[in-house]
Write a structure and sequence with these properties.
The chain is mostly helical and 239 residues long. The chain contains four helices and three strands, in the order H-H-H-E-E-H-E. The chain has a three-stranded mixed beta sheet with strand order 2-1-3. Strand 1 (191-195) and strand 2 (198-199) form a beta hairpin. Helix 1 packs antiparallel against helix 2. The structure holds zinc ion. Zinc ion is lined by residues 199, 201-202, 204, 223, 225-226, 228.
Length: 239
């Protein structure tokens, strides 16, 4: 029985390992998805700022185009100055030119404002681009780490499955069946250590006499409370 219990205890450790790996395997796609989302948000943040700069550049070009047209008009009006016959016509043309010049200087003012805004945005943008670059690198590093972890888990999983296969064959089928049933009912734990006279599965005390028996690992003893098979794996102080 001693050997059987020891084998069962080894099997339990493997099964717990497999359970952890299984949980990790289920978590990885979610973690990867989270990284993808983070990456997307960072990229979009920059994209919006770039679009803002582009739209302001467009506004600036439009205003400059408009200014050119107006300046041409002024030139043409000035050209007409020599052709006017009367003083009244002359005054009218003069005030028309003045009005156009006034409007143009307002456009020039607006262009300067837009250019200031563009400069300011570009300064912020290049700073942000550096920040996002660093963040994206970190995300990539996390992704590589995750992928390494996935590969490592896959390797451990296969190794433990093989060991499980070998061990399972060495355990008496009745005991193996009992273990599997308990494991299914008790959150993956069928065999459990006893420490300080306490079942480490349900944390309820076992009777003192039972505790003495359990420490011998000579018989199949089950927790009176949770029914799990009890095993003595030392008091944990040596390890
Ligand atoms: Zn128990």
């Amino acid at each position: 029985m001693k050997d059987q219990l020891k084998l069962l205890w080894e099997l339990q450790k493997i099964d717990l390992d497999l359970k952890t790996i299984k949980e990790e395997k289920e978590r990885y796609p979610k973690d990867i998805k989270k990284l993808d989302e983070k990456q997307k948000i960072e990229k979009e943040r920059i994209q919006k700022e770039r679009e803002k700069v582009e739209s302001l550049e467009k506004t600036r070009r439009q205003k400059e185009g408009h200014l050119n047209t107006e300046q041409e008009k002024i030139k043409r009006a000035e050209g007409r100055m020599s052709e006017v016959k009367t003083n009244k016509e002359y005054q009218a043309l003069l005030s028309e030119i003045d009005a156009m010049k006034g409007a143009n200087s307002r456009i020039e003012e607006e262009i300067l404002q837009v250019m200031d805004e563009i400069d300011e945005l570009k300064k912020g943008l290049s700073k942000r681009e550096k920040e996002v670059g660093v963040t994206l690198e970190k995300i990539e590093a996390e992704r590589r780490k995750l992928e390494e972890q996935v590969a490592y888990d896959e390797k451990i999983w296969n190794e433990q499955m093989e060991r499980r296969e070998v061990l399972s064959k060495q355990i008496e089928s009745k005991l193996f069946k009992l273990y599997n049933t308990l494991k299914e009912k008790r959150h993956g734990v069928g065999v459990v250590n006893v420490r300080n006279e306490t079942c480490q599965g349900c944390f309820v005390n076992v009777p003192p006499q039972m505790f003495i028996e359990v420490q011998k690992n000579n018989a199949l003893i089950r927790c009176p409370n949770c029914n799990r098979i009890l095993y003595w794996d030392g008091d944990g102080k040596k390890k």
